[in-house]
Amino acid sequence: MRNLINIRIPEALHASLKQQLWNIQIDENDSICALKPMLSGAAKYLHAEDWNGDWLSPRGIDLQINGGLGLSFTDLTFEQLPQLTKLLDLLWSDGVEAIAPTLVSCSVSSLRHSLMVFRKAREQCSLSRCKLLGAHIEGPFLSQAFKGAHDPKQLCLPSLDALNERILGFENEISLVTLAPELQGSMEVIRKLKELGILISLGHSAASTDESLTSFQLGVSMLTHCFNAMPGLNHREPGPLGAALLQDEIALGLIADGVHVHPKVVVILHKLASNRLFLVSDALAPYGLQHNHSTWDKRELLIEKDSCRLKDGTLAGTTLCLLDGCKRLAKWTGDPSSAIWAATVSPRLLLQKRKKIQEFFIGRSLKELLRWKFNLGSNLLNWKPAE
After folding, report:
1. Alpha helix (H) ranges present in 231-382?
2. Residue 283 burial (CB count, 10 A)
3. pTM summary value
4. What is the pLDDT of residues 191-246, one digit of tens each?
5. Whose C-alpha in 47, 120, 349, 357 is 20 to 30 A from the C-alpha of 146?
6. Considering only CA atoms, which of 176, 166, 174 is closest in space to residue 156?
7. Do 246 and 363 reside in the same domain of the chain?
8. Structural domain that includes position 365
9. How far is CA 16 from CA 105, 250, 282, in A?
10. Distance separating alpha carbons of residues 209 and 23, to the nearest angstrom
């Protein structure tokens, strides 16, 4: 039995560096068997390993990632399975435990073929490889006015027929659907997705405040990449973001690259709702490569300073890993604890509601977890495998 002492675990709300310290017990199989608050009295921990206030967390969960190592998830083939495996290995080495592979607006045949490839890839799981969760279907039920980098030719109005055409037979392999709830036909699609137990997110949407609030009542529980591809927060029309901030349970997705949302605006959002943020990478096919140019559904991508844009300047995504965004969030806010929480715990709670954070540690090997150190002088946060 080993004892680790003076450990912090991430918290959602802004926490001082004097937050609760924990004692962790490791059994003979190198798995965590107990996680308890530190008690006074140093003698109790004489032979313990002192972490000096470093954080312990699960690995990251990325609910919005579009590809990497040259692969675009909407164009996958079975011949690319070895390359997909390499990408999942890269993600693990970058601290990510699982992803919801994101399929942007594309043809029905492309979407269903990619879902079949993911189904096959899940058979090749490994304890030290990033896992494939159910897919994130981002589109095609999106607003033409807020399409972002989505191909406008692939967008369509929501309907049960259009939904079934895309996901019939894969219902248990879909984690999340992003849609614009103001579109005609969206309400019946939202009801169906809720019935299937699939998370529903408002995104690429022109929804008004009232339309957003109505969608939350029906089952929409989150926003896809806050501020992007939706009306801004306006003092006369709060819009989707204002409506979400008024609701205690709506989760807020954030791309923390400093380009999609200005760091100062990120700090404001963090002050308002740090307990509801979850970070996503929004990484595209060039992630993991050192390229200045790439393509996305045959359109040229220009890459500069971790950002991907179409030739017309439209922001399309990033080349960043999820935990790079976590480190940036910690630097901007000076709050490492909630930044770690937003990348590692918050996405888990969206997928496994009503769990306590301790449940994400008990029974886990240290090899599966991350150790974080924060430099108070520079606001730099860094991680390494916990063992």
Report:
1. 239-245, 263-273, 322-333, 336-344, 346-351
2. 30
3. 0.95
4. 999 999 999 999 999 999 999 999 999 999 999 999 999 999 999 999 999 999 99
5. 349
6. 166
7. no
8. 2-57+355-385
9. 43, 25, 30
10. 46
